[in-house]
């Protein structure tokens, strides 16, 4: 049983894999070696392409614990196979004290529990996890990650750093002292070198890998076969074409590797100062860093070579490499729970949760701030590919395959061609045997039929449309790093937009402020920069509560903070290094108003304004900063006015959050109404609060106090109202998308009502549409989770009854087609917290909410990704457009992610727009649709090309004839390649239409189109082939002079002669007739399949294609009606009577007319007929889940939920105080009450 075991690694993660153990088997290896020799190396190639077969053919199953080789299979929909060799890491114990304990703690996969000194490891049961009698650890490497065998869980696991399972307390108590040299050496042995290695393969390696591609192996087989059959010129042409393709591919691949290598290698190796246990500072290379090392961040900054958590000092960091946000971010030291006034001590450190205290690999530390005599230190938590930058590089190096119906159908298409080739293969063998053809010729001709049926130019033809689309996108400023995604973008039917910087302008303008006095809002004020307010706590909060810093004398930071600070007109000064050294208590940042704003004397008895009692100099120093955290939706600072004893705490953030942390008696009673009025108008509102701190709080105590101790019992001071204007092009672009039946969704971190207001202003939600706000509450105090439904508009006031009239929320079906369903005109809006509760407790409601959800506010980055996944789960093709800041996950997950940022974070997004405008979205979809239709056209054309040539060869084989070398060359090079590469040049249609192109090749209309053209082509070609044999002048061995002179139209001088028993296999009447008819058929189907509107420009606007077709038509017509001796000699054509030339012309003209009429008929009526037949005969439900759901909801009387109602998750049973939630099967409205 042990040998049949299956292990799972990376459980419940994106890269989850099954692991199977195998051991090498000598007798299997011997059999495989024999097979390789017998098949001329083909078996070796097959095993190279198929890792699963390779392992199973050479190995026997073994227990995973003791195996030599592991076979890995992904658990996603692709089920891809990989194999890896087991290696051993030898740990010698001579040079270090008690290494066994260290090894045991590391090899069990729990590197997070490494002790700070080797001797102290006994408490971790040192000998429990070591492999018997040795210090060897078994591991394998997959996608740049090492997986070590862990005896405690009996499975492989990757070695973790300090980013999991380590409490914030232990970060300070156990890891802040640094490592001994012995411990450092052991950890380096296990964790390896700290570098993100992107090896640029040599040209030779890339060449071998590229040449071993199945397509090129098939090409090689074809060339050898053609050479044996004397097709030297054609074989040479294919070799040249393949070489050009290989060189182009090698150049492109190597260029991408070099670019990625250069991006990663920048500052990858730097010298760093490391603190050791004995407080000694050692200088080492960054490649020698291991988790647990304490590094010193230099004053003038550095590029971080690892992920590290800050334990002392403050850093100003540029994180554009990871987030796309070029705004400098302030990083503060991790709060130490053991010394906090109010701390839990049980909080576990996480780079995501504590990202405001974590310095990420690849980010640039611009400058540091430190305290007297204390260095700015950080503890290394992750190194190499485990870092955030390493994970990003891994996602680029090892991308998930693109799953798209077109590509799956393409393989089916190739399999069909192989099937057709198989029939031809068998027919050729039987026909030649019956005609007593020699064995050598039987072999070459039967194999030749395979190379004819599967066209060598197919891969090049398929990529042409995508390459042209990529080039056109580049001209409109859209850059693409994943060309295969262009086709998928042609299927997008829903686009998610970030709000700030995407739909609206990036910057915010200060509209005004509204202060609070005596629990009442004062009138709004526009001008904040005046003498009356200069010494108010309100302005003091605006002056201090921000994360601004000066970089090379220029004020930098968050745009909102910059606008706020510029509005008051104050001056920010930062202490220099020399000034810092002179003071015990430093205030790194000091703010003060300009002198002209300070009043000459302090007015007495002014009750309306709270003023500082102050001398002529008025300065405020920022003592401690608690940076903005998206999870908390606020930031705060501790500041001190020069000359005052007590310090002040200031806070700013989301109004709802700030108000909840203030004393209720300081919050105006109409707070919610005032806030709602502003947010409904689309303003962004920020609340301010203040509190005087106790005099016992010294500067030193403030440095270690927790933010929870500061952020409570505050006085509400008022609101700052910021205006965020819509971008000029936003409404027009969204209108174009709506006309094209493409849904639009807003995903933002902003306030709910602000987002709803912007959605209305930009046309995402129409004036007559209703908005239902879903407020989901998690289980609490024994009560189950529930959703409260509120109507954001007049519905809540206009009706006393809970029933909704059907006229209030109109439901309509605009088109007969399910694809064009206009869903009921209502929209759901919810915030991130509600979204998380619904995902967890109301799984059955998620698809229904995805069908109508339009506004998602206060969404965290991971929630944006979850939303994209939820939309994909109901079969939407999802596009995501964001400015790169916090959108990276969603941009990667979407079918088509478009970043409006040119920064390095755009490597996570398939598409990057040079201009920060959403007008790139319709452009991308138009080009995607054009590329997709081009792919269909090329597929159809290549299918017909294969079948036409297959028919020609099969017909000629029946009379022991074949096409000549130059005939093949002319057809494949002069006709097919020219047509394929020019028919792909059709530009995209100028506007988006409501109709979407089909997603796959297997559709009724498309298959009928191909089959009808196949029948027409085969029919007319067969007509010509059999008709020529009925002519009175026809002979098996053509006598050129006699045949031509019967018309008196041509004099032919030919030395060619043959006899009836041994006819020429090329120069005969059948060959010439089939060659001319088939040549015209290629041109006809190219024109017929080169579709234009509604996805591409008409083919007559594709000038290269039109010119190519005209020239080819003219040339073939010329050599058919007026033979040219030199051309006929090269193409090995024979002379036929003039009447037969006219007959062939009539055949090809009739062929063209029938082809055009049938294709037009299929286009006009085919889709309707097939849709009607599918609905009438099969009563088939729509393939897309969202369309099926839309049908259900149209007849669901309980949906949408009624206003002012609640949906609960019912309790099934209660055991031990826990409740089990059951989902409501099909009628959530039934539990509304």
TrEMBL record:
> Phosphoprotein: is it a keyword of this entry?
yes
Could you tell me which residue ranges the Cation-transporting P-type ATPase N-terminal domain spans?
176-226
What job does the chain carry out?
A: ATP-driven pump involved in endocytosis-dependent polyamine transport. Uses ATP as an energy source to transfer polyamine precursor putrescine from the endosomal compartment to the cytosol.
- Keyword field contains Translocase: yes
Please give the Pfam families that the UniProt record associates with this protein.
Cation_ATPase (PF13246), Cation_ATPase_N (PF00690), E1-E2_ATPase (PF00122), P5-ATPase (PF12409)
UniProt entry keywords in alphabetical sequence: ATP-binding, Endosome, Magnesium, Membrane, Metal-binding, Nucleotide-binding, Phosphoprotein, Translocase, Transmembrane, Transmembrane helix
Q: Which SUPFAM superfamilies match?
A: Calcium ATPase, transduction domain A (SSF81653), Calcium ATPase, transmembrane domain M (SSF81665), HAD-like (SSF56784), Metal cation-transporting ATPase, ATP-binding domain N (SSF81660)
Enzyme class comes to translocase
Regarding the membrane, this protein is recorded as:
Multi-pass membrane protein
- Protein name, UniProt field: Polyamine-transporting ATPase 13A3
By its UniProt entry, which InterPro entries does this protein fall under?
Answer: ATPase_P-typ_cation-transptr_N, ATPase_P-typ_cyto_dom_N, ATPase_P-typ_P_site, ATPase_P-typ_TM_dom_sf, ATPase_P-typ_transduc_dom_A_sf, ATPase_P-type_domA, HAD-like_sf, HAD_sf
Q: Which family does it belong to?
A: Belongs to the cation transport ATPase (P-type) (TC 3.A.3) family. Type V subfamily.
Bilayer-crossing residues are: 27-49, 232-253, 410-430, 450-469, 930-948, 968-989, 1001-1028, 1072-1090, 1102-1126, 1138-1158
Question: Where is it mainly found?
Answer: membrane
Q: Which residues form the P-type ATPase A domain?
A: 272-396
Q: What gene is this protein a product of? A: ATP13A3
Q: Where in the cell is it found?
A: Early endosome membrane; Late endosome membrane; Recycling endosome membrane
Citing just one GO molecular function, the answer is: metal ion binding
